[in-house]
Amino acid sequence: MVVIVGLRGLSYEDKTKVFIVLGFSVVFLGILGALIYPIMSHGTNIFEVASPKGQPLLIRNLTVGDVSYKDVVALNPYYNNLIIHSSKEGAGNVTITLETPGWCVDLWIWGGKEKGWVLKSNCSRSVSLSYYSFDVRPAHESGELYWYLGAGSMLVFHKEGKIDNYEKVAFKVKYKGKEDEGSFLVSLGRR
């Protein structure tokens, strides 16, 4: 109303020009707000386990270095991969802590052609991996990242005693104060 009262002395053409400019300004600000709002309100501190998230993983017999395993689940790029979804990257350790009783994890690191696979952690409830153990890939233009457990690392989950078909193995993953849960179901396959 204030604007309309101030326009009384203007000609019809000038009033039309003012209304057109005001109309375009409102539309422009609406479009600008619609574009900027998702960027400004986007959660910038994403950290979650993308995989495994409860899917069945087939147990297998496996030999790593000079150690033979029977009925284990291995996480590495060749079998089942551990994938973390994050919005930040940088040096730091990723800690994996088992929640399910009776299970433990072995951490194997590739030591090069001369050493082969080296056992870094034997039957632990918690293991720590360097950020550099992951292949970090961007998720297009969103700025988000997917961390894939690299070819030089392997996590071997195993249990002493009887394994039930579709037994759930849960674990927590921590990185720089952020934490999320991952899990998988142990599939015995056809036996």
For the record, what CATH class of the largest domain applies?
Answer: Mainly Beta
Structural class: alpha+beta
Give the rounded overall mean pLDDT.
Answer: 84
Task: Give the ordered list of helices and strands.
Answer: HHEEEEEEEEEEEEEE
Task: Write a compact overview of the structure shown.
Helices cover 18% and strands 48% of the residues. It has helices at 2-6, 12-41; strands spanning 47-51, 53-58, 60-64, 67-75, 83-86, 93-98, 103-110, 117-124, 126-130, 134-138, 145-149, 153-159, 167-175, 178-187.
Which helices and strands, and how do they pair?
Layout: H1 2-6, H2 12-41, E1 47-51, E2 53-58, E3 60-64, E4 67-75, E5 83-86, E6 93-98, E7 103-110, E8 117-124, E9 126-130, E10 134-138, E11 145-149, E12 153-159, E13 167-175, E14 178-187
Parallel strand pairs: 2-14
Antiparallel strand pairs: 1-5, 3-4, 4-12, 5-11, 6-9, 6-13, 7-8, 7-12, 10-11, 13-14
Keywords: Membrane, Transmembrane, Transmembrane helix
Q: Would you kindly provide a written description of the structure presented here, covering whatever features stand out?
A:
Keywords: Membrane, Transmembrane, Transmembrane helix. The chain is α+β, with helices and mostly antiparallel strands and 191 residues long. The protein folds into two domains: 40 residues; 141 residues, Immunoglobulin-like, CATH 2.60.40. It is 18% helix and 48% strand. The protein has a five-stranded mixed beta sheet, with no helix packed on it. It is elongated. The relative contact order is 0.20. The model has no long low-confidence stretch (mean pLDDT 84).
